[in-house]
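Re: [ENG-882] Designed sequences occasionally contain unexpected residues at chain ends

Forwarding the minimal case from QA. Structure tokens:
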């Protein structure tokens, strides 16, 4: 299966300029000609950078990357510096380089830079990022190259590009997605919004499965966010019974347990007070009488009625 180029026409066209990257091939012109922004180099031609501060590489993670490279190829080319005598030194991408060796590759795609072109590369990449025809992965790769190769911090990059740090961070996170998803972004199968949601979707298997579901079912970004959060359409809430219904239900239950005399008393009391009355009692004769009122006015009327009844009894 043929491997797809890691960059679209936008970034390729800019980096074909001989002032930035060099890729020399003899094509019938004396002395050779600088063409293309990416060249395939034999792994035997490349040596690691002795000044790379990173010395520990997790074997399990390298093996996973190696398997991804076997299936999808290298999404982000290595960057090397020409040393002479057909030898090159890594500037960035040693993890990809080691994983490519594990995958048994004989050649890897590389940006080839001359030793003193940092300023020109920085200017070219900054100019390139302003283009409107780049996909999100091309922008992400450009950001990463500026950070790695031009020794910029995210804050400095933010100032140079006139973009917020959160914008830069969001693009850089895309490079942590599995290769299959990065290819999907590059080919326009999903949007930047989908990709940002997938970053937080969980492990690689979950991300890839959800990516396939997005493409197959044409899910919106909101659909994806809802799936990731485990949200479902809220079920219709059962309408809570009104207080009167609760009392009526309690009355029916109580009437079944109370003696006929107490039931008759309760009904007369409710009629005299013009409100709901509930009486409950246990087997030992203990219980309570609950008189319901809906307003202060009704409460005052109940108090007056009880007071009058008491006065009549005392008389």
């Amino acid at each position: 299966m043929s491997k797809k180029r890691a960059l679209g026409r936008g970034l390729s066209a800019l980096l074909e300029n001989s002032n930035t990257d060099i890729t020399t091939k003899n094509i019938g012109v004396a002395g050779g000609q600088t063409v293309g922004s990416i060249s395939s180099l034999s792994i035997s031609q490349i040596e690691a950078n002795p000044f790379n501060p990173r010395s520990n590489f997790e074997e399990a993670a390298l093996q996973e990357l190696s398997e991804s490279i076997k299936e999808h190829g290298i999404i982000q080319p290595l960057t090397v510096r020409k040393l002479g005598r057909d030898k090159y030194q890594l500037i960035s991408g040693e993890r990809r380089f080691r994983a490519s060796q594990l995958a048994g590759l004989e050649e890897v795609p590389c940006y080839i830079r001359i030793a003193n072109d940092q300023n020109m590369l920085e200017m070219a990449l900054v100019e390139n990022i302003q283009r409107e025809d780049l996909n999100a992965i091309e922008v992400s790769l450009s950001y990463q190259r500026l950070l790695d190769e031009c020794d910029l911090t995210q804050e400095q990059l933010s100032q140079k590009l006139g973009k917020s740090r959160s914008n830069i961070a969001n693009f850089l996170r895309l490079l942590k997605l599995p290769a299959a998803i990065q290819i999907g972004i590059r080919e326009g199968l999903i949007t930047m919004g989908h990709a940002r949601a997938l970053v937080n979707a969980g492990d690689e298997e979950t991300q890839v499965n959800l990516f396939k579901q997005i493409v197959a079912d044409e899910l919106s970004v909101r659909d994806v966010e809802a799936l990731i959060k485990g949200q479902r359409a809220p079920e219709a809430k059962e309408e809570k019974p009104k207080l009167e219904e609760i009392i009526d239900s309690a009355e029916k239950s109580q009437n079944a347990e109370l003696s006929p005399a107490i039931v008759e008393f309760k009904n007369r009391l409710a009629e005299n007070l013009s409100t709901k009355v509930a009486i409950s009692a246990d087997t030992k004769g203990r219980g309570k009488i609950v008189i319901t009122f809906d307003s202060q006015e009704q409460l005052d009327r109940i108090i007056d009625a009880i007071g009058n009844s008491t006065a009549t009894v005392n008389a």
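QA comment: On inspection the terminal residues look reasonable. The first helix runs from residue 9 to 15. Proposing we downgrade this to a documentation issue.
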